[in-house]
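Q&A FORM
Asked by: J.P.
Topic: structure of Lysozyme inhibitor LprI family protein

PROVIDED:
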Amino acid sequence: MRAILLSAYLVLLAGASVARAQECDRSDDSQQMMNICAGEDYQAADARLNEAYQNLISSDDADAKALLQAAQRAWIGFRDAECAHTTAASAGGSIHAMEVSQCLTRLTNERIKQLAASANCEEGDASCASPGEDSDEVQ
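REPLIED BY: S.T.
REPLY: Here is the structure written out as tokens.
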């Protein structure tokens, strides 16, 4: 019984030290650490996105909620496909995880701005839903 408890304790200690070793240290410029930091940046952006989405969806009526949910699901599919496409050249390389995380972070931050702008739209203002875009310009 003591051997089992000791083994379990050692496994917990080992897991805790691995978890600590996986925290972002921006002074470490190794590729592994840059991957870890980029992953943490994405996780933080994703948390902000979830907050912005929850704030917006809680204020919508049932029809608007359904439309927002569909839009968000479609956007997630787009984001994931876009990042897979734009980072395909580094697939299999040590930099790939960082590039994917950076892409996810960039697109997530753009989506947060879109949701925030949408939350501040007044009813009937069709130009409000696309922040920073001029409807007359083609990009």
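FOLLOW-UP: Residues 5-20, 134-139 have pLDDT under 50 and may be disordered.
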